[in-house]
Known about the structure:
With 262 residues, the chain is an alpha/beta fold. The chain contains ten helices and nine strands. A hairpin with a 5-residue loop joins strand 6 (179-183) and strand 7 (189-193).
Amino acid sequence: MSKRNRVRxxxxxxxxxxxxxSEKRLTxxxxxxxxxxxxxxxxxxxxxxxxxxxxxxxxxxxxxxxxLTGITLGxxxxxRHISHLCELTADEVFMKTQGWKSFPxxxxxxxxLERFRMVHCVELAEVQRMLGQKVWNKRWFGVxxxxxxxxxxxxxxxxxxxxxxxxxxxxxxxxxxxxFAFIAQTGECLNCWLRPGNTHSANGSVAFLRETLARLxxxxxxxxxxxxxxxxxxEFLSELHRRCCGYVVKVKIRGWKEICAA
Length: 262
C-alpha cells in the first residue's frame, strides 16, 4: 500500500487504502508450478530418459527428459508454437522453482524432434501408460465413460501421412485424421491414432477400440462408450456387445420424417 486517504463520513473517519504494484519477482504461472511439481513427483523426466532411446551426441547439454518436460509444461501453459517456450525461460520465478539455470533454444529443440521416429513414439506411449498407472493406483474408478472422437487437423507442409480428405476446418487443404479416446472422469487422453487425411472415419475403429480397452486398468469393471457418427458400423457395435460395454453412438439418419410416417 503506497498511501492512505482519509474520508470523513457520518460515523467517523474512514481510511481508504490505495494499491500500487511495486514487486518485480512475481509470476503469473503459479498454477503451472503445481503442475510441474506433480510431473516431477511422477518422475516424468526420469521415465523419458529411461524408456525413450533416442540417439544423440555425447556432448549434449540437456537431457531428453528435460526437453520433453519443458515442452509439456509449455503446452499446459498455452504455448501454441515451440518459439513460445521462451516465455517460460523469461519467468525467473518459474525457472528457479524448477531448478533450471537455462533451457535449450528453439533450434536445439527442433533438432531433437526431427530425430523422432515411430519407435520413439511407441516408447513415449509406454511412458504415458506407466504414468497413468501410477495415478490410477492412487485414485481409481470402477465405472468409466470413454469418449471416442475423430478430428480433422490441417497441415502446412509435407509431413508424413498428410493427404487431402474431408477437411471441415479448411477445405481443399491437406490434413490428418486422428482418432482420440478420453476418460470422462479424469479428462486424460487414453489413446490416440494419427492417421492420413484420406482415411475413412470408420476405418480401424474396431482395432482402436480393442487397444483402448486394453489400456484400461484391471480395476475397471464397467465401461460406457460415447462416440460420434464416425464410429457407427456393424463391426464396431458387435465388438461393444461382445465386450458387454454400454454405448451411446450418434447416428445421422436421412429421411427422418418418412421413417416416422411409416
